Amino acid sequence: MAALHRSLVLLCLTLLALNTVVSAHNITQMLSGFPEYSVFSDCLTKTKLDDEINSRQTITVLVLTNGVMSALTDKHPLSVIKNVLSLLVVLDYYDGQKLHQLSKGTTLSTTLYQATGKAPGNLGFVNITDSKGGKVVLGSAAPGSKLDSSYTKSVKQIPYNISVLEISQPIIAPGILSAPAPSASDANITAVLEKAGCKTFASLIASSGVIKTYESAADKGLTIFAPNDEAFKAPGVPDLSKLTNAELVSLLLYHSLASYSPKGTLKTTTAPLSTLATNGAGKYDIKVSTSGDDVTLHTGVGPSRLADTLLDSTPLAIFSVDSLLLPTELFGKSPSPAPAPEPVTSPSPAPVLAPAPISEAPSPLGASPPAPPSETPGGAPSDAPTAESANSKSANAAGHVGAPALLTALLTVSATVVSAIILS
Ligand SMILES: *[C@@H]1O[C@H](CO)[C@@H](O)[C@H](O)[C@H]1NC(C)=O
Ligand SMILES: *[C@@H]1O[C@H](CO)[C@@H](O)[C@H](O)[C@H]1NC(C)=O
Ligand SMILES: *[C@@H]1O[C@H](CO)[C@@H](O)[C@H](O)[C@H]1NC(C)=O
Ligand SMILES: *[C@@H]1O[C@H](CO)[C@@H](O)[C@H](O)[C@H]1NC(C)=O
C-alpha cells in the first residue's frame, strides 16, 4: 500500500515536472534596460551563457558594471571571461531580502561553473555571507579565499525564477584567471576524439579529408557531434563502405554545425539546425529536444542522445553522441539492412515531435503504459523529452497539442494505479 501510495505521489510529481516550462525569461532582454551592464550582457551573448541562463530556472545572476567588466575583458580572453561569468551565475534564487535572511548568516551556493563540470573541488561554489555590519559579502568558497566582493544593489527579479543583483567585484576562484586558454586553432580535434573513445569517427574524418573542413571552420564557430565507437557497431547501422565518397563526406559533415553551440544553446534551440552538410533550405538539418539536462538530436531517421561534452571552448564545442546521425537525405528511403526505425516516407519529418504516439495510447487500463510500439528504438525515454520540449518555451503548435495529450496519458496511468489500490 505504501509503495503504491509512493508511486502515486511520484506520478503526480512526474506530471508536475513534465508540465514545467523550460524557459520563461530572457536575460538579454532583462538587462537591455540597463546600459550600465551592457558589457556584461554582451559577454553573456558572446559566450552563449545567455542560453544557459535562459534554459534554467531558480537562478541568480550577479552582474558587474561596465567599468569592472572592461577591466576584465581588456586583460583576458573570452574563454577565461566565460569561466569568470559562470561563477557569477548562482543556481538558486536570491533577492535582496533573502540575502539578509541566510540561516546562520552564511551559505555556500552552487554556480554554473560547478554545474558545467569544469571546476575541480569546490572551486565552483561561492560563499555568501551577511556580515555583521549588515553588508552582504561574497567570495570563492575555496579555502583561504577573501570575501572581497559585495552586494551593491538589486537590479531586477522575476520572483522565484530569476533574480539579477549587482555586485562590486568579480568572484575570483583560485586559478580561474590563469587557466590556459585553449584556442580553437590549437585544439587537436583528432586527439580529443581519440581520447574520448570516438576513434572510428576520428579515423573516418581523417581518411575522408573532412578534418580539414572542420579545422578551417573551428575558428569561426564549430560544433561537432562525434558518435562513439559503440555507435558504429550498433545493430542496424548502415554499411558505410557502400556509400560513395561524396555520400560519406555528407554523412560526416552532417555531424557538425557551423556555429558554436554549447549545451545551453542546444537546450534553448527550437528551430531545426543547419549542419555543415546542409545544401539547401531544410536539407540535412537536425532537430533538438530537451528533457531536464538531457539533450536528444533527431534526424528524422532516429534519435541520438548527447552523451558527453568533450570540449567546450568558445568558439569550438565537441560532444560525443550515442548513435550515428543518419540524415533522411541519405537513409530515409532506401532502408538497406536497417531493421530499425520506420523508414521515413514523408519528406517533412513531423514524427520527431512525439506527442502524437502518446495520445494514441489513451485507455489501455492495466496495459503496460510505456512506449507506443510505433516509436523508434529509443522508445519511452525519448518520448517524454520530446513532448516536454515541445511543451517548453516557444509557443509551438505541436506543444499545445502535445501537452494535453501527455497529461491525458499520465492521468490514465494514475487512474490505473488508483483502481489498483482500490482493488487491493
Ligand atoms: C516562472 O517560471 C515558470 C516556469 O517556467 C512560469 O510558468 C512562470 O510564469 C514564471 N513566473 C513568472 C512570474 O514569469
Ligand atoms: C532575448 O532578448 C533579446 C533582446 O531583446 C533578443 O534579441 C533575443 O532574440 C531574445 N532571445 C530569445 C531566445 O528569445
Ligand atoms: C564563508 O566564509 C567565511 C569567511 O571565510 C566563513 O567564516 C564562513 O564559514 C564561510 N561560510 C560557509 C557556509 O562555509
Ligand atoms: C593530433 O593528435 C593526433 C593523435 O593524438 C596526432 O597523431 C597528431 O600528430 C596531432 N596533431 C598535431 C598537429 O599535433
Automatic annotation (TrEMBL):
Spans through the membrane: 401-423
FAS1 domain mapped to chain residues: 185-325
Chain intervals for the UniProt region annotation (Disordered): 335-395
InterPro entries noted in UniProt: FAS1_dom_sf, FAS1_domain, Plant_FLA
Bilayer topology annotation: Lipid-anchor; GPI-anchor
Signal peptide from the UniProt entry: 1-24
PROSITE patterns in the record: FAS1 (PS50213)
Record keywords: Cell membrane, Glycoprotein, GPI-anchor, Lipoprotein, Membrane, Proteoglycan, Repeat, Signal, Transmembrane, Transmembrane helix
Composition bias type Low complexity, residue spans: 355-366
Keyword presence, Coiled coil: no
Pfam families per UniProt: Fasciclin
GO cellular component, as recorded: plasma membrane; side of membrane
Superkingdom of the source species: Eukaryota
Gene3D superfamilies: FAS1 domain
Comp. bias (Pro residues): 336-354
Subcellular location: Cell membrane
Role played: May be a cell surface adhesion protein.
Protein family per UniProt: Belongs to the fasciclin-like AGP family.
Name of protein: FAS1 domain-containing protein
Organism: Ficus carica
Biological classification of the source: Eukaryota, Viridiplantae, Streptophyta, Embryophyta, Tracheophyta
